[in-house]
Structures are given as C-alpha cells and as structure tokens.
Amino acid sequence: MDVDRFEDPQRTRLRERLEAILTQTEKSTSWRAATRPLHGLINRDGFVPIRTRLAREDLIFLAGAREELMGFADLGLRLLDLHQPRDAGGTAGDTAHPILRCRSCMWRWPCPTFRAIAETFVSPQEESETTGWLDAPDDLAG
User: Fold this and answer.
1) What angle do CA 55, 56, 62 make, to 5 degrees?
2) How many Cα atoms sit within 13 Å of 138 on the Cβ side?
3) Which residues contact residue 19 at a Cβ distance below 8 angstroms, ignoring those fewer than 6 apart?
4) What is the pTM for the complete model shown?
5) Where are the alpha helices (DSSP H) in the chain?
6) Contact 50, 108 (CB under 8 A)
7) C-alpha neighbours within 13 Å on the C-beta side of residue 23
C-alpha cells in the first residue's frame, strides 16, 4: 500500500457528492431569465399568484441559485484538492494503518477543514452509516 497516495473513503464519497451537485447544476437551466417576467406579477401582498407562493426574495434567490450553487460546489472541490490525507512519516508500529496528516494544513487527518466540508455536505443518514469519522478528536498541528 502506497501510504503517500492514501485515499480516504469518506473523502472519495464527499468528492463524488460535490461532483454530482456540480454536474447536476451545470445541466440545469438558469432561472435568471425566467424570473424577470415574474417580477411584474408580484401582487401587493408581495407574492406571485401561482400554485406556490413566491415572494420577491424567492424570485431573487431562484434567479441566482444555479450560479451560486455551482460556485459553492466548485469551492468544495477545490478545498478537497487542498485538504487530503498523507502519511505523516515517522516510525509507526502499525504499517497497515499509518498516522495520516492533511497535506495542506498538517493537522491530523481528518483535518478541521475537511470535517467542516463533510458536515456541510453529508446527510445525517450518511453520517450515521460511517464509523464516526466526523467525530475524530481535534489534534494540534505539529
């Protein structure tokens, strides 16, 4: 096993989820043009009278949601590229399970940045199916 090329299964699953969000968002149609005519339909109560009540804020959100979601998914992927596990080196007694540190911040793996991303994008059901990887104790870098 090449421990310097270790790939964390939770990191792989998170990357796949972010890539799926990005792919799905790229395939979707932007609502920006579709929401422009709806602004003229806003009644005096502040809603567009359709089956679902859309407030002005809803239309503004829908107009930019696709682009914003693409940006957040891309940011998540870029952060995952920066924060990934690597062998910490040294002489560990257990060569099958080496001590891992983050390539970027050198915190013990999983680092706080990875855990923050995972907590944001992993559903509670998925978290319960893992082996407590989000609950790993903080470790001071160095």
Assistant:
1) 90
2) 5
3) 73, 77
4) 0.64
5) 9-27, 32-39, 56-82, 112-121, 124-129
6) no
7) 6
| Residue showing tokens 């059901």 | 125
Place of tokens 């560990």: 92
pLDDT digits (tens, 9 = 90+) for 28-53: 878 778 778 888 888 999 888 877 77
- In a 13 Å sphere around the CA of 4, the CA atoms on its Cβ side amount to 2
Residue 59 structure tokens:
């239309």
Q: What are residue 108's DSSP bridge partners?
A: 101
Distances (CA, A) of 12 to 34, 40, 41, 68: 36, 45, 45, 23
Angle at 121 between CA 117 and CA 124, to 5 degrees: 120
- 127-138 in b/e form (b: 16+ CB < 10 A) is eeeeeebeeeee
Q: What is the pLDDT of residues 78-125, one digit of tens each?
A: 999 999 999 877 665 677 778 899 999 999 999 999 999 999 887 766
Distance CA 68, CA 12 (A): 23
Asked if omega into 110 is within 30° of 0 (cis), the reply is yes
Q: Which of 79, 91, 112, 88 is nearest to 6 (CA)?
A: 88
